[in-house]
Design a protein that fits this description.
The complex is a heterotrimer of chains A (about 280), B (about 280) and C (about 325). Chain A has about 280 residues and is an all-alpha fold. Chain A has twelve helices and two strands, in the order H-H-H-E-E-H-H-H-H-H-H-H-H-H. Chain A has helices spanning about 1-15, 25-40, 40-65, 80-100, 105-110, 115-120, 125-150, 165-185, 190-205, 220-225, 230-240, 245-275; strands at about 70-75, 75-80. In chain A, strands 1-2 form a two-stranded antiparallel sheet. In chain A, a hairpin with a 2-residue loop joins strand 1 and strand 2 (about 75-80). The longest helix of chain A is centred in the last third of the chain and has 28 residues, at about 245-275. Chain B has helices spanning about 10-15, 15-35, 40-70, 80-110, 115-120, 125-150, 165-185, 190-205, 220-225, 230-240, 250-275. In chain B, helix 4 (about 80-110) packs antiparallel against helix 10 (about 230-240) and helix 6 (about 125-150) runs antiparallel to helix 7 (about 165-185). Chain B is built from eleven helices and no strands. Chain B has one domain (about 20-275). With about 280 residues, chain B is mainly α. Chain B is about 75% helix and about 0% strand. With about 325 residues, chain C is an alpha/beta fold. Chain C folds into two domains: about 5-235, 3-Layer(aba) Sandwich (Rossmann fold), CATH 3.40.50; about 235-300, Alpha-Beta Plaits (2-Layer Sandwich). Chain C contains eleven helices and 13 strands. The chains are: A mainly alpha (about 280), B mainly alpha (about 280), C alpha/beta (about 325). Chains in contact: A-B, B-C. Chains B and C meet through helix 1, helix 2 and helix 5 of B and helix 2, helix 3 and helix 4 of C.
Chain lengths: ~280, ~280, ~325
């Protein structure tokens, strides 16, 4: 019988970790996104993937002629395109994840009442959070694969390690999406959401994406090295250029922490918002 | 009579229609600016911050690498000097297009404020002119601030560079009014602004010889620059700023291109504003 | 003074002849004639899609007609759009206030569109806020207002220029009963002050409350035109008996009931019987051995008129 299957799920989960928070059905949210998506938004995905390619073409080729080669580690020189391509990949992972986890979610949270409806079913807040973030990741993955497919054959990535940049981009997207969604659950007005856009541009421009941090004064480097995009760029750049060092672990740890904090607090926050 | 009753002279004595036919565009612009002023701090912040980010990151940051690698400079000058007219034009054009397009979608579709305006003696043409005027006022404000910043950073030298401001604003007006007309003409606008941003504004920004001379690009990419009002404004701007070589013929072409775009833009915008209001 | 009191030929503010509007194959307004007099409260009554709003927009000089003639204040809207709009106060079906501005600023900005002086508007705003009972909300952003308040503000906005004609398109659709009554009271005051009102509605109670004269429209055509009382007198009986026998049996009894009164209408859920003495009619029904589960005697309304004219219910 129909009702009993829902009851059965509830019974099975009773007393288990995450009861009332997670019903292990985050994929339902993904499906919801996929259905909504089919109705003609493919061009949004395409456009997100085109932007870094255009930047690479413009800066890598044009500015590259002006700046020559860049030194990444002592004695290790790379072309300008090789230098910025990983940064563009990391940045587009951030942009896509942030857009999906902030603006899109803000409207569903505030105006559409989508979550209210979802949480009135057997879905829990962690299902919603994971589902939405999962969608952001899927998109991030598509961007990363598309970008790599263009860049890799051009020899801009060095060696097969470069392909690891794809999963790395997904981890970066995961980190940003978790924090982005957390911010969104606290945002009250569109003006507050606007801050997200305000922050993204300088984050991109100053996180060592277009040139090494070495030209900055020490105090500025300290600040930038504390910010997430710099870590993201370091990960993708190292993998893409085949520079495998222990420091990669530290950069990854940064993202693992972002994900853990973002997810935990978002879940808690959704519970406060909808399940009081 | 209760206290709630309204005094009444009647519209026939109150309203001066010829005056509205003359000044209607100004009324609309005033109203738009009034709405904008609600966001004055964000506007001032954004007019200042975004261009500064580019100036510092690309002008100074990348400039350091460029200058050390190009002993003779770019186009014979320091990278920041080369970049300044382009940055100014890019910021101004982007800002103007944003301010001239967003309110159009809002006015026709989201809030339908244009229909309220059109219920008064004001015409569609006046609404278009008013919205553009407000957008360009804000663009002018941003342009002056950015000019001052560039001057302070030593990217511009001499008072003759003040000519950059009107030239830049002219280029911005011609493109903004065209985009405004397009916004009035399109039906399915859910994703339109996003698409404009990504497939039009960003490519124009990237391929208009903004960060390097257009001639260093492969031919097929140069075409984007030729079509772009940003490139024409940048060429003229570099000529004004540091005497970048532009032939007299080329100057005529640059100005003609911007003028023709403006004429087409106004015609198109006026036509579609009137048409859409009467639907 | 209302139009009914004056014996001299009243001044026509709007005159239409053979007015027609087509959208491709669809005819929204199908060659209608009408006349609206000064200080009159004139209503267009009809279901959604009857052509009321289209007619209103042609009068408001914001929509071009396909053919026919129309003058507003003696002018042709196609030639003198701005001159006509200068003397109209328009309340559209959907509020199009500026949500980002305050109540006061909305009135101010709109007044400026009419080229009114700042001083005049400032004074007028005080009056309008009192009239619309929004004095306490003057500095509140529009997006924070209730539906009823927004509606009152839209009406106040339309009055800022002291228009000759106030046009209201479905003024109370979507409002709760209390908000509707406040609004009707405000409109009634305007009517008493001699403002010419033009109202479209699909609510018969609203039409009865507010309109001196009504034009019943359906599918772009005029079905009838008169005062509310006149329409009822012409197209219906004094009273109506509503009887219910349960969904299956209403139709079954219809034949028997038909012979007992002037006219009946069989609706899915009840049967309407039209007669001048419905108490007696009910006795007769019962005496013939038919026992309705519920019965109700009421006065005829515009709903009955509409049913008679079109064979359909007004609100579906």
């Amino acid at each position: 019988m129909r009702e009993s299957s829902a009851v059965a799920i509830a019974e099975k989960l009773k007393g288990r970790f995450g009861e009332g928070t997670y019903s292990r059905r985050a994929r339902v949210i993904l499906e919801h996104r996929r259905i909504a998506f089919r109705q003609g938004h493919w061009i949004v995905v395409l456009s997100g993937f085109v932007e870094p390619v255009l930047y690479l073409l413009s800066f890598g080729y044009g500015v590259g002629k002006l700046v020559g080669k860049i030194q990444v580690t002592p004695g290790h020189w790379v072309t300008y395109a090789q230098f910025i391509a990983p940064a563009l990949l990391a940045t587009s992972a951030m942009n896509g994840a942030i857009y999906d986890s902030t603006w899109n979610i803000f409207f569903r949270l505030k105006y559409d009442g989508t979550y209210k409806a979802m949480l009135a079913t057997s879905l829990g807040p962690l299902d919603v959070a994971l589902g939405e973030i999962g969608w952001a990741l899927l998109r991030g993955l598509i961007y990363a694969v598309g970008f790599t497919a263009i860049v890799f054959p051009l020899g801009i990535m060095k060696g097969w390690y470069g392909l690891l940049a794809i999963p790395a981009a997904v981890v970066i997207a995961f980190g940003f999406a978790s924090i982005g969604m957390l911010y969104t659950t606290f945002a009250k007005s569109i003006a507050q959401m606007d801050w997200v856009n305000v922050i993204m541009l300088p984050l991109f421009l100053f996180s060592g994406s277009l040139y090494p941090l070495s030209i900055y004064p020490q105090w500025l480097r300290v600040i930038i090295e504390a910010l997430p995009l710099w870590h993201g760029i370091q990960i993708v750049r190292s993998l893409s250029l085949g520079i495998i060092q222990w420091s990669l672990l530290w950069h990854f740890a940064y993202f693992v922490a972002m994900i853990a904090i973002g997810l935990t607090l978002t879940t808690r926050r959704l519970r406060v918002l909808f399940m009081r | 009579m209760s206290a709630n009753d309204l005094s009444r002279k009647g519209s026939l004595t109150l309203i001066d229609v010829p005056k509205i036919l003359r000044w209607g565009s100004i009324y609309i612009a005033q109203a738009r600016i009034r709405s904008m002023l609600k966001w004055k701090w964000s506007i001032i912040g954004e007019s200042f911050a975004t261009p500064m980010f580019y100036l510092l990151s690309i002008g100074i940051g990348i400039g350091k690498f460029v200058n050390s690698h190009q002993a003779a400079g770019v186009d014979g000058v320091k990278y920041l000097t080369f970049l300044a007219p382009a940055l100014l034009a890019a910021a101004c054009i982007q800002g103007a297009v944003g301010d001239a397009t967003f309110p159009v979608l809002e006015g026709f579709k989201w809030q339908k404020g244009f229909f309220a305006m059109n219920a008064t003696p004001i015409s569609g043409k006046q609404i278009a002119n008013g919205v553009l005027l407000a957008a360009m006022s804000r663009a002018a404000f941003g342009c002056v601030i950015y000019y001052a910043a560039l001057y302070t950073f030593g990217a511009l030298h001499g008072l003759h560079t003040l000519w950059l401001i009107p030239v830049t604003l002219f280029a911005a007006t011609s493109f903004a009014v065209l985009m405004m007309g397009v916004c009035a003409a399109i039906k399915n606008d859910d994703l339109f602004l996003n698409m404009v941003q990504r497939f039009l504004i960003v490519p124009l920004f990237l391929f208009s010889g903004t960060f390097y001379s257009l001639a260093s690009m492969p031919k097929f990419l140069q075409i984007i620059g030729w079509a772009s009002p940003l490139w024409h404004a940048t060429e003229v701007g570099r000529w004004i700023s540091y005497g970048h070589h532009v032939s007299a013929t080329a100057l005529v072409i640059h100005f003609s291109y911007m003028t023709i775009m403006a004429i087409i833009g106004f015609t198109f915008a006026h036509h579609h504003f009137t048409k859409r209001l009467a639907k | 003074m209302s139009a009914a009191d004056s014996q001299a030929t009243p001044e026509a503010l709007i005159l239409a002849k053979g007015l027609r509007k087509e959208y491709g194959d669809f005819t929204a307004v199908d060659g209608i004639d009408f006349r609206v007099n000064r200080s009159e409260s004139f209503g267009f009554l009809g279901p959604n899609g009857a052509g009321k709003s289209t007619t209103m927009r042609i009068i408001a000089a914001t929509l071009t007609r396909t053919s026919g003639e129309i003058t507003i204040l003696g002018k042709d809207p196609e030639i003198s759009g701005p001159e006509i709009r200068a003397h109209l106060g328009v309340v559209p079906q959907q509020d199009n206030l500026d949500n980002a501005l305050t109540v006061e600023d909305n009135l101010y900005v709109y007044g400026r569109y009419f080229g009114l002086s700042k001083k005049f508007i400032r004074n007028k705003i005080e009056e309008l806020l009192a009239f619309a009972q929004l004095e306490e909300k003057r500095s509140v952003k529009v997006e924070a207002l209730s539906g009823g308040m927004k509606r009152r503000l839209t009406i106040a906005r339309a009055l800022v220029s002291e228009p000759e004609i106030l046009m209201l398109d479905e003024p109370t659709t979507g409002l709760d009963p209390q908000a509707r009554h406040i609004l009707w009271d405000r409109l009634f005051r305007l009517k008493e002050q001699g403002v010419t009102l033009l109202i479209t509605t699909h609510y018969m109670d609203e039409a009865e409350q507010l309109c001196d004269r009504l034009m019943v429209m359906d599918k772009g055509k005029i079905m009838a035109e008169d005062s509310p009382a006149g329409l009822i007198k012409k197209y219906s009986t004094k009273e109506v008996l509503e009887v219910r026998f349960g969904a299956d049996r209403n139709a079954q009894y219809a034949d028997q009931l038909r012979g007992m009164c002037e006219r009946i209408e069989v609706l899915p859920d009840r049967v309407l019987m039209y007669s001048h003495d419905c108490e007696a009619l009910l006795h007769e029904v019962v005496s013939k051995g038919m026992h309705p589960t519920t019965s109700l005697v009421r006065r005829s309304s515009l709903e009955d008129v509409f049913l008679r004219l079109t064979g359909r219910s007004l609100v579906e």
